[in-house]
Amino acid sequence: MQLDHQSFSAYYNIDNGTGKIRGIYLQGNAACADIFSNWFTPFHDLGAKTITISNTGGTDHQSFDGVGLPGFQFIQDPIEYDTRTHHSNMDVYDHLIEDDLKQMATIVASFVYNSAQRDAKLPRK
Questions:
Q1: Could you tell me whether strands 11-13 and 71-76 are parallel, antiparallel, or unpaired per DSSP bridges?
Q2: Number of domains forming the structure of the chain
Q3: Averaged pLDDT for residues 23-48
Q4: Strand locations in the chain, DSSP E?
Q5: 45-54, 70-79, 92-101: which range is least confident on average?
Q6: What number of other Cβ atoms are within 10 A of residue 66's Cβ?
Q7: Residue 72: count of CB within 10 angstroms of its CB
Q8: Which CATH number belongs to the domain containing residue 58 in this structure?
Q9: How far are the Cα atoms of 55, 63, 85, 115, 119 from residue 66, in angstroms, in the given order?
Q10: Distance of alpha carbon 92 from alpha carbon 58, whole angstroms
Q11: Looking at residues 5-25, what average pLDDT do you find?
């Protein structure tokens, strides 16, 4: 392991702008499944509880995953991301949903906090 990788625990990505978090892609990192399951427990009432071993592509987490660092993309409601707003002149604040942003911020902050409070770094694949 590279020296600079030793202090790194995890990278979490939100790529779709608005859209509630429904879970997380493990990117094949099965060792994180139970950890994330516990971290999602307080958010089940907000609809966030799916954990899939699957990979997803096309987001910034792939750069981390590609060099062996834990990088994860949250599963989100797509809203109009692929059909109307993504990288278009309609990709503006007017299309954000305030309640979704609050839910997302709460969950991401919790995951970052929990990662920082662990005695060990998150497991690598």
A1: parallel
A2: 1
A3: 97
A4: 11-13, 21-25, 50-52, 71-76
A5: 92-101
A6: 10
A7: 22
A8: 3.40.630.10
A9: 12, 5, 28, 20, 25
A10: 20
A11: 89
